[in-house]
Amino acid sequence: MSGVSTPGSGSDVVHTINSIGMGRLVGKNAVVTGAAGGIGLETCILFAKEGANVLMADISAPALEKAAAKLKQLVPSAHKVHVQVCDVSKEESVKAAVDHLDAWGGLDIMFNNAGIMHADDADAIDTPEKIWDLTQAINVKGVWFGCKHAVLALRKHNKARGSIINTASVVALVGSATPQLAYTASKGAVLALTRELAIVHAREGFRFNALCPAPLNTPLLQDWLGDDKPKRLRREIHFPSGRFGEAIEQAQAVLFLASDEASFVNGQDFVVDGGMTKAYVTPE
Ligand code: NAD
């Protein structure tokens, strides 16, 4: 089988996107979980560029420090950027992150983005129960806790509007013959709970949307694929664009969903996948 053509590289896209304008989140306070990693960090950078105050929350303290230093270097004009170690599978930890914003006037935007895809996650037969439980604890319960404390904070501060964005995945929408069953089930749950909360809270002005990224050029997936060429091609052949997505392309979608420009966008499975889930055969 021949390789896949790559008409516009990821780095061209990153360069173009980095030059887009500023100011869309002025006066907003945001919590981002999984802030030290790919999508989370790019989103924090973008939020800060657009004028938001940002709490970067992540389970890894050293990674957080490094990520915050990068943000401050790239966005010297950033307003408040704080870091907080947070394990999203622990309710008290999530509550503490959200409550940190009380001193700023309360939360406006919650990006429940932290997630894991465990190397031992497999099919129905081979997935160990403890991997199933760990995956649901972070990917599902963590999102629930984030939604719960975001709603409580929005109410506490009498906010007329709020935006909650939960990271799901395209695997919640299409089946994969390379199964990671616990992960797939967890992302399906994220879609379902996001949709329901969108309807429950619509008249309070609180919007809930789920982000569905395609396979990305971030450590979560790339570390797992390594330089295994057949394993990579197994995926790349299905990409109409011929390439993995970039974290910043997801961050741009999150920015839109977080901003008031998306005021009538609610309850959506917001798919950012270069057309992957709409493809039958892809260009040679
Ligand atoms: P990443 O691994 O680069 O970043 C994830 C971050 O979450 C890391 O910084 C990690 O320390 C943090 N984290 C892990 N467990 C945590 C916990 N219990 N509490 C708080 N933080 C925790 O991954 P990424 O690619 O940026 O993924 C972000 C989200 O996007 C995840 O929910 C992932 O499932 C989803 N996603 C990723 C891809 C992809 O191909 N990378 C595709 C679809 C969906």
UniProtKB/TrEMBL annotation:
One of its GO terms (biological process) is abscisic acid biosynthetic process. One of its GO terms (molecular function) is oxidoreductase activity. Gene3D superfamilies: NAD(P)-binding Rossmann-like Domain (3.40.50.720). It comes from the Eukaryota. It holds the Pfam family adh_short_C2. PROSITE patterns: ADH_SHORT. Keywords: NADP, Oxidoreductase. CDD domains: SDR_c. Belongs to the short-chain dehydrogenases/reductases (SDR) family. PANTHER family: 3-OXOACYL-(ACYL-CARRIER-PROTEIN) REDUCTASE (AFU_ORTHOLOGUE AFUA_6G11210), DEHYDROGENASE_REDUCTASE FAMILY PROTEIN, PUTATIVE (AFU_ORTHOLOGUE AFUA_6G03520)-RELATED. This is Putative 3-oxoacyl-[acyl-carrier-protein] reductase FabG-1. It comes from Coleophoma crateriformis.
